[in-house]
Amino acid sequence: MVDKSEKFSWLVRVGYFSRAILYFVLGLVALTSAGKIAEGTNGIFRAINDFPGGNLILWIMVIGLFAYALFRFCSPLFDIENQGSDSKGWAKRIGHAGSGIAHLALAYSAFQFAGRDTGEAASGSGGSGGGGAQEAASGVLSMEFGGALLGILGVAFFIAAIFQVKKGITGEFMNRISGQAPSATRWLGGAGYVARGVVYTVIGWSLFKAGFMSSGASQVKTLGDAVASLAGEGFIFTLTAIGLMLFGLFSLVLARYRIIPDLDEQAGVPQFRA
Asked: From the centroid of its chain, how far is CA 256?
């Protein structure tokens, strides 16, 4: 019988596999297809849908991205990676929460796209890639203190961006990876995390402006929209796109070699193996 801990581990690994596909295709589309990257997140999912068995891949990504988002939400709730409860620990845990929200939104976008029939997906009907996120942001803004909530979420993405870049530079992420991982893992992750930090900064700024500067929900950017917004930035755009492809390869390594927390059978709380 497969216990809870093993099920949890497999779900998280599917999440890393889904993240690998997402980021590699995102970087590839950014470098090779200006038309599709201009469509934002939908351009990414449309490219995946064009692969052989693409719709099945999308459904796997729905499950995987949702599982990865839940994994990240376990950090602020249960401190599964032992970050601690001091200011630095909480900053990292809040950053993980921001990552969880971002991947939950991506899972929902993948779900919407995977659920379309073939003709609709091919024609591109059903709205822009960022439509779902912008509708959600509009709903938040309509609530009391909704602007503050979006602005705080933007700050969470800024925090996440800082820690992404710090991870890339210091290589601290290697502490969570098995020693059997390929030797290239360190530089793949280093380049990937820095590129991801750039994208998180763009997303955070869009949320901050929508929440605190009244720029409107239409300005809120998803992952694909954030990359598309860099298209006019020359070498910054190119390096970010390459970095995202490398982050996809790095995520594929993590799907196999990431050290996954165990689920405590009694408490139901994820904890790292000794």
From this structure: 18
Nearest-angstrom CA–CA distance, 148 and 86: 24
pTM to 2 decimal places: 0.80
Under a CB-based contact definition with an 8 Å cutoff, are residues 252 and 245 in contact? no
Q: d(Cα 214, Cα 220) in Å, to the nearest integer?
A: 11
Neighbour tally for 146: CB within 10 Å? 17
Of the candidates 45, 80, 74, 60, the one whose C-alpha atom is nearest the C-alpha of residue 15 is 60
Radius of gyration of the chain (CA): 18
Instruction: Give the containing element (helix H, strand E) for 228.
Output: helix 223-229
Instruction: Decide: residue 52, CB within 10 A, 0-12 exposed, 13-18 middle, 19+ buried.
Output: exposed
Residues pairing with 271 in the sheet: 262
Vertex 57, ends 51 and 62: CA angle to 5°?
140
- Write phi, then psi, for 183 (nearest 5 degrees): -65, -25
Name the β-bridge partners of 263. 270
**Could you read off the pLDDT tens digit of each residue along the chain, which spans 274 residues?**
345 567 778 888 998 999 999 899 899 888 887 667 777 777 788 888 888 888 898 999 899 889 888 888 887 887 777 777 888 788 778 778 877 887 888 888 888 888 764 445 444 444 444 556 666 677 676 776 777 888 888 888 898 899 899 999 999 999 989 999 999 999 999 999 999 999 999 999 998 988 888 767 777 888 888 888 898 888 899 999 999 999 999 999 999 999 886 655 434 454 444 3
